[in-house]
Predict the 3D structure of the following.
Amino acid sequence: MTLSAGARPAGAESTVLVIAQAGDSTADRVVVELRRRLVEVARVDTADFPTTVQLTGRLDLLDRPGWLAVDGGRVELASVRSVYRRHPARFGFPERMSDPERRFATLESLAGMGGLLTAQPWRWLDAPGAVADAAYKPRQLRVAVESGLRVPRSLVTTVADEVRAFAREVGGPIVYKSLSTGLVVEPDGLKIVYTTLVDPADLDAVAIGLCPHLFQEWVPKDHDVRLTVVGDRLFPVAVHADSDQARVDWRSRYDDLRYEACEVPDRVRSGVGEYLRRFGLRYSAFDFSVTPDGRWWFLKANPSGQWEWISEETGLPIAEAIADELVDGPAAVGGAAA
């Protein structure tokens, strides 16, 4: 029997698929919570694809769309109700493959595995396409403004003179922020590019011209807020910094931080909801700065942001909220890649 588009066998959707690296302790917490509820979980590490994780799909048979071979068992795609996706690893290919072969196989795997999984009518937290769209910081800032959130004056440029003109317009301190992950791979390991206060007189015009740079006016904050949103549930935490370095970028000095639950202003609650709706997301980790007069300023939102440490520090039930969303939440917007 072939089902009509979107139809599924009654009662067939019983499995939550977790796509995460083997050592991901954040994903572990979600898996534990799901199993505590007696929910069937299938966990896939894309580093094991296509060596030990294998797949087969039929796009013309909607009632039998295919399967994944995982941990010696087989997961029928028709049995999956939802997917929790967290920072998938690179695919693992045999050492004997040449670099050109590896690049080709990587692209084919992204298109094949990603295409097959996102072709299914599953609920995603969150869909790969939506996460990719929401990762662009300039687009985040534009959508935040459109959603009614306060955003610091911001400039993306490759021209040093534009930065100097921007600094004159701001008339106060400005900061530099990375536009991407902020990770730099050095011979001695990974380094992180943190938010940095900038003196326009010290700008290197050559360096500015090598790639786009993001500059913002410095918000004279009282504290920061990490706002984790899962579906319709908001988990706001005030982050207080006890050092000058942590006050500029709290990620640089976790030992200098204090946390406490706080309340979300109605304007921010409404703006965050609109922001997620526009991106088609059900999860995101928002960062705000709060000025002494209580105004919240949107800085960024990570659609794959970490939450485990904030849950441990505060006791907030974020894993439980994610499990609720995977088991009972509404359908999410589809995506285009694994």
